[in-house]
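Reopening: Helix-turn-helix transcriptional regulator still failing for me.
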Amino acid sequence: MLYGRSTEQVRLEGLIAAALEGHSGVLVVRGEAGIGKTALLDWAATTAAGRGLRVVRVTGIEQEADLAFGGLTQLLWPLQDRLDALPDPQAAALKAVLGAESAGGRDRFLTGLAVLTLLADLAEDVPVLCLVDDAQWLDQASAEPLLFAARRLAAEGVAMVFATREDGLAAPGLDELRPSRLDSRDSARLLAEHQVAPVRRERIISESAGNPLALIEFAAEQRDQSAGPLSSRVADRVMASFRAQIGRLPERTRLMLLMAAAEGRGDLALLLRAAHPMGIGLDDLEEAERAGLIQVTESAVAFRHPLIATAAYQGTASSRRVAVHRALVEAAEDPDCRAHHLPAATVEPDAAVASELAAAAGRAGARTAYTAAARLYEQAARLAVTGRDQIGWLARAAAAALSGGRPDQAAELAERAEELAGHVAGGAALPGPPSGGEHHDAVAELISVRAAAMFELGEEEKAVHLLLDRADRVAPRQGAAMLRTGATYAWFTGDEAAVSAAARKLADLGESDRMAEGLAHLMRADYTRGLPLLADFLARTPDTERALFTGMIIGDDAATMALAAAEVARCREQGLIGALPQVLQVLAQTQLWAGLHRDAEATVAEAAGIACDTGLQQRIAWLNGVPARIAAIEGDESRCRRLVGETPGAYQATGDAVLSLLELSMGDHEPALDRLEAAWSGPGRNTAVLLSSAPDQIEAAVRLAQPHRAEEPLRRLRAWARASAQPWVQAVALRCQALTGDDETAFQAALTLHERGGRPFEHARTRLLYGEWLRRARRPGDAVAPLHAALETFTRLDATPWAARARSELHATGESPGAAHPDSPEAPLTPRELHVVRLAAAGRSSREIAAQLFLSPRTVEYHLYKAYPKLGVTSRRELSRLNLT
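Support: Ran it again with your exact input. Result attached.
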């Protein structure tokens, strides 16, 4: 019976009831050791089973915290017969977890999608309660997919409950429940149940501070007259109590408990194989079993509470722990199990052990368990015999940490390896592989990893100079790769000298790179040479990532959108979830330029959701540029300024461009102009985003009747347009020429170029400015057509301040512009509903849509159900007749 847990039981009962109605929910039960988290999960399991739910359970094990997929294997082992029903990439990912096949470079987050689909499929039969106990000890490779699945549950009929220590599993965004300590009344009732005399209860209640485990253990201790004085800290006291109980057992029993604690998984067969050479066996567990410390079944040994295992292990001399781990190594039949115990069994450098650990790290990395791989490589480095091997394994540890989303750890490991390289070889590169590895230059790898980690951590300038300064210390091919990356990083930081240096060094190596050369020319405002080089690079390169980056810079929106859409489709098909946020960001940017604001918002929302669900929190802030610009166009000042305030420093030029556009639309011409002039004097000068804002700078100067302040941005814009093959750039340059020179011919030429496509918002602005010019020239009749066309585009884009300006001009011509706001549905589709509906309209099944959007089929159906009334339809068949653009 549970005492003092009515509030917690109500919350858990609510989750179970919701699952029975087809809804999903997640709860994190967080609290100190012994507060009763496991008891709550046990109660939930019993309650759920009694109401017809299927209960699946995972328990973190302290000794397995570094064992790849140790926790997830518990979930999957009894469900292996369900895996073949999953989409092929997902089934393969889960089979790789179980060791049935290699993950072969798959995205580490695909496993989370597979877990989500598996739980949803289980819930198709009956609702599911998934319990994850002692989550603070889950290995990272298990925690990530379980949390991913938890965050994307919606309408499957799946309830998930995680139980973790106070400082355990980090689960931002998930609802939490913190069990309270028991009050005096409930503490007394618990002690009475354990037959503690009333005369003893008051002191025990006081010392336990309402912790249920402490109450029970202190009560048992007080029944033992040999127990010593009470200690001051509850946690210390509970541990001391367990150690005292273990200390009273026979020596052979204590040794068997130590072995069970060291083994961790409760594998009785392995324990007995390891115990035999040490002269102990199953009979030696009887005393511990009678004392209630463990439970023994036909195949497993389980400690009554994890703290008992901790007490059995930590309360033993280190020499005994080493001996036990050595016995477990010899008895283990699985190579990964051997690798788990080898570091604790080895106290001196050992080349064979280091190689075996590195091999295990390679297997972990192949299964996308990068955190485990990093740990194993680091342990291999610790036990390596030669400095060369140490450097190699540390380099690989750093690379694995970076792949696992741990840039801080990656930077620290890479720095350690570099320092070691300096000691071993006086700072020179150490060519060749670590023993047993494929040919590669470890120093080049660790420099690249360290630079990537620095860039992720916001130390962009340090990353640039690290790559450029060390490129000549490695093999030419690897040095060239470092220089290409350095040139890209330097572009983001606005470091003109670094971009030029990277391009020059590449040429010196015989590895001339059109992208690096083009960027160097752009940094010097030499658009005539820079833009053609970049355009040629975009047309020829097979490197999609660099092509996307180049397309964004030169403003080739159509090519960039096509590339981004294809790359998004590839990522969806192959389940490359971790790569999606960055590609979706590029797609959203091109959708924005194309005037597809709803699409862009939906794309950003999906990217932000995936970034959040996969723990890529830093990516969320980088996504703000697109919705911030949409807010500026729409005149939503508070949202625009909030989003710009959350944008990383590396995107300062983007923030300045967005805010200046907002201020221009509001008639605040002076601050808009000042802001852009300041930006042009900063490190972001000559970037594409500021060149795209040159028209705003020019218009603000003209509005302020300060044409001299328009001269320099107009010169840059015209030079860009002359070198560019993009009609929209040429059109905008002509518009600005017309605006400053009172030139109708330039306006007309600009509109002709705009008709070739690209950036409808800029097209509408040209029409608006031409209409205004015509009205001031006393030709109101000629002004009506361009003003109406401008108003139509601004209205479609919800560009409220710009539409108001066009409407005001039409009034001045004597025209009636019509209603200020078009009719729109009272409840517009959410970004996710829009995605789902469009795919459904294209004939995709719910299962196909779920695989593309990383949802469950039930959630897809839920979004369709919510969208139908908003669209005025009742079935999928009717969707194909709707205009969903």
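The chain has 47 helices and seven strands. If you still see a failure, please send the error message rather than a screenshot.
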